Automatic annotation (TrEMBL):
Catalytic-site annotation from UniProt: 93 (proton acceptor)
The protein's enzyme class: oxidoreductase
Domain of life of the organism encoding this protein: Eukaryota
Similarity remark: Belongs to the peroxidase family. Ascorbate peroxidase subfamily. Belongs to the peroxidase family. Classical plant (class III) peroxidase subfamily.
Lineage of origin: Eukaryota, Viridiplantae, Streptophyta, Embryophyta, Tracheophyta
Assigned keywords, A-Z: Calcium, Disulfide bond, Glycoprotein, Heme, Hydrogen peroxide, Iron, Metal-binding, Oxidoreductase, Peroxidase, Secreted, Signal
InterPro entries associated with the record: Haem_peroxidase, Haem_peroxidase_sf, Peroxidase_pln, Peroxidases_AS, Peroxidases_heam-ligand_BS, Secretory_peroxidase
Enzyme Commission numbers on file: 1.11.1.7
GO CC annotations, alphabetized: extracellular region; plant-type cell wall
Binding site for substrate: 190
Any one GO biological process: hydrogen peroxide catabolic process
Protein name, entry field: Peroxidase
Alphabetized GO MF terms: heme binding; lactoperoxidase activity; metal ion binding; peroxidase activity
Span of the signal peptide: 1-22
Amino acid sequence: MGKKLYLLAAVVYLLNFSAAFAMINNISNKTISSNNYPKEECINDDIGATIILSFGFYLNTCPEAEPIIFSWVEKAVSDDPRMAASLLRLHFHDCFVNGCDASVLLDDTPDFVGEKTAAPNANSLRGFEVIDAIKADLEYVCPQTVSCADILAIAARDSVVLTGGPGWEVEMGRKDSLSGSKSAANNNIPGPNSDLPTLLSKFQNFGLTLQDMVALSGAHTMGKARCSTFISRINGTAGIAGNGPDVNLEYLQSLQQLCFSPESNASTTLAELDHMTPATFDNQYYVNLISGEGLLGSDQVLVSGEVEETRGIVEAYADDVDAFFEDFKRAMMKMGSIVQKGDGEIRRNCRAVNQVQL
């Protein structure tokens, strides 16, 4: 009874939330559909199909969807605060491989090698069990209605909100892929030691701008990284991205003590991406960069001077958290609408395509 009352209250809240966003967006230059929600067309050039993302997509078919997702994410983050960053990262790694289509969730089979074993993901991505729980609950309430790709997008938003960050209305209507690509995951997802030109190129490949890149990098204001992802920065390797004169040597020494202690293991020992406010979504990440305390090389290069504009954006976000929040919301919505490649479906189980599920 308690759960039903909670879901009813949450549904009412989200209905009001969606209506408010619809009113705001009605004055924008987006196309207004017959149900009064702005829609953005994502055209799949491979097969000529069109996927239309819209606000309030499940209000008629599964109004409980967003409350159910929020309740599971809230529980997961309460049990493990690091899970917020993990769920946000799942959405990133999904969208950077053939679009936001939940391909990252597919398990390997005897006939298929997916993205979970790709270098950026193996022994690193977390949160699959949370997505499983959400999907099982949704399948009970609204069978084969809510896509796993939409679950990832909503869970990412909710993770940000639950850790003190901004909220935004998520456009929905994504389909789940019928396959995945380990090679695309290896090639497309930015690496932790990428230099600035490489980072910019990877973001621009998906229609994301330099400003989008800097704003989305702010997701590293929470979460952790293994020593193995930044060990080249602290072991004296020459020419490593992010090891310029702006680096805080005391900070690097503290990382050396963490990663090179007799008890540590480079594959399992973790460091906070934001050592000041590690479990809060705020703008401290940018303050850290200016102080030379970016954990990953790909973080610190944003102020290295390779592209002067990036440092200016970092400084602006460090000075004004509201500016960061606004740009982060916009960039997340833009990333969430990256064109999906290939045909799609609504999976019953996020780990496998429907045709191979028992």
